[in-house]
From TrEMBL:
Record PROSITE patterns: CYTOSOL_AP (PS00631)
SUPFAM superfamilies, sorted: Macro domain-like, Zn-dependent exopeptidases
Family to which the UniProt record says this protein belongs: Belongs to the peptidase M17 family.
Residues engaged in binding Mn(2+) 2: K258, D263, D281, E342
UniProt gene name: pepA
Protein localization: Cytoplasm
Protein's UniProt name: Probable cytosol aminopeptidase
């Protein structure tokens, strides 16, 4: 869907459009809805009474207005009960609203800024606009259908905050950019193609960019990263993006994203059904790159550096094996007990590099463990922090952004299981299935002493069915948290 949002200072009934949308909250018309109802001599309230419309969340009622006048129709949109309503309610309302208006087939509509009286014009405008733009996202893919009708919709938000709507457009566009990267098939989005797109984005937005090929990766000493990549015919790339504010930076933050553009599991081969979503094993990288896209436009006073170790984990005569010992960039040696625990190997070198380049704090995002999905399900990311203050800062940013994270412990007693008799570390905790997400986080914490937050996004990064803020596929999880962390509102 091609969705255009417009902010307007005028009242709902003062903007010409064929469809006008008013909210019903707690079973009653909103103030804007009451104004519209009075103008049309009680048509809306009579329809609600006649059809027993209570306005449960997402419920709609289409009411015909005066013939020959504009608007011709009013859409009553249910916001549910007053108790428990939140900004997330507004986001989901925006997404549902766009889908419902598109279903009706109109090209232009005007909606009130729901619940502005409760949350304030700025916050309500932002949440509603963000939800609408996320809900309007569609992945066109590579279908060869011809003559398919292109959906276009212009949606006006009455009495909204223009700056809030503009910011929502920037952030939502970045989230949708991440979604599209995750949705690309792996034969298209190879490590080299991911790097090419990062370079194109940097050129477009004025970011600094540097990309290393496989030779440079080896020369730098990234032995853990390169081992994962060496089995594929598609060579790895190490992607580095930098945003610097015009004034001296308040601090320097690094974002690291897992960039496995496809993961077979290597010789520790995944079952076939588990490989179906493995084109999304680079969702952490997608989030990092997309967040850089947003901050290049928002221009926060923080220097941000993004790092992606992009690779495929494949099987061949050159692929790394169980029992191999790898030398990481940090100098620490790693015994491989499972080639499907590959993400942490690529991230170990990327985190080390981010540390050495002068980052004062690091956030790393990765679809790292199925254990985290078992613990927290498909809606919530696990948050691990080696520094409580930095962990709280990231968690609070996620809460403001509307993304669900939950803190899990870096339990020091479990670090013992990562000790190897052959090398400094081993890449998994062996045959035990206990505490898999925690031991993976402990492994990553071995490669920096700077404040580090590891977000295990294996659950919420990809949805196999439609969800409240968008269609099946990549969700763009993490983008909003990263942007909120460095730019606020």
């Amino acid at each position: 869907m091609e969705l255009t949002l417009r902010s307007a200072r005028r009242f709902l009934d003062q903007i010409p459009a064929p469809l006008v949308v008013a909210g019903v909250w707690g079973g009653e018309l909103s103030e804007e809805g009451q104004r519209l109802d009075a103008r049309h001599r009680g048509r809306l309230s009579r329809a609600m009474e006649a059809l027993h419309f209570k306005g449960e969340f997402g419920e709609t009622l289409l009411v015909s207005l005066e013939e020959g006048e504009e608007p011709g129709f009013a859409l009553l949109f249910g916001l549910g009960k007053k108790r428990g309503v939140s900004l997330e309610t507004l986001r989901q309302a925006g997404a549902r609203l766009v889908r419902e208006v598109a279903r009706l087939g109109v090209k232009e509509a005007v909606a009130e800024t729901f619940l502005a009286e409760k949350f304030g014009k700025k916050e309500a405008s932002y949440a509603l606009a963000e939800g609408a733009l996320l809900g309007g996202y569609r992945w066109s893919g590579y279908k060869t259908e011809t003559g398919k009708r292109s959906e276009r919709l212009r949606l006006w938000l009455a009495r909204s905050s223009g700056p809030a709507v503009e910011r929502a457009e920037v952030v939502a566009e970045a989230v949708n950019y991440a979604r599209s990267l995750v949705n690309e098939p792996p034969n298209i989005l190879t490590p080299a193609e991911l790097a090419r797109r990062a370079e194109a984005m940097a050129q477009e937005l004025g970011l600094q960019v540097e990309v290393w090929d496989e030779q440079r990766i080896q020369e730098a000493g990234m032995g853990a990263f390169y081992a994962v990549a060496q089995g594929s015919a598609n060579p790895p790339r190490f992607i580095q993006l930098t945003y610097r504010p015009e004034a001296p930076a308040e601090r320097v933050v690094a974002w690291v994203g897992k960039g496995l553009t496809f993961d077979t599991g290597g010789y520790s081969l995944k079952p076939s059904e588990s490989q179906i979503t493995m084109k999304g094993d680079m969702a952490g990288a997608a989030a990092v790159l997309a967040a850089m896209r947003a901050i290049a436009r928002l221009k926060p006073p923080v220097e941000v550096r993004a790092y992606v170790a992009a690779a495929e984990n494949m099987i061949s005569g050159r692929a790394y094996r169980v029992s191999d010992v790898l030398k990481s960039l940090s100098g620490k040696t790693i015994e491989v007990l499972n080639t499907d625990a590959e993400g942490r190997l690529t991230l170990a070198d990327a985190i080390t590099y981010a540390d050495r380049q002068g980052a004062q704090a690091i956030v790393e995002l990765s679809t790292l463990t199925g254990a985290c999905v078992v613990a927290l399900g498909e809606k919530v990311a696990g948050l691990f922090a080696n520094d409580p203050r930095w962990g709280r800062e990231v968690r609070e940013a996620a809460e403001r952004a509307g993304e669900k994270v939950w803190p899990l412990p870096l339990e020091e007693e479990y670090r013992e299981v990562l000790k190897s008799e052959t090398a400094d570390l081993r890449n998994t905790h062996g045959r035990s299935r206990a505490a898999g997400a925690i031991t993976a986080a402990l492994f990553l914490s071995e490669f920096t002493e700077k404040p580090l937050v590891h977000l295990d996004i294996a659950g919420p990064a990809y949805s196999e069915k439609e969800h409240p803020l968008g269609p099946a596929g990549g969700t763009g999880f993490g983008v909003r948290t990263l942007v909120e962390l460095v730019s606020g509102r």
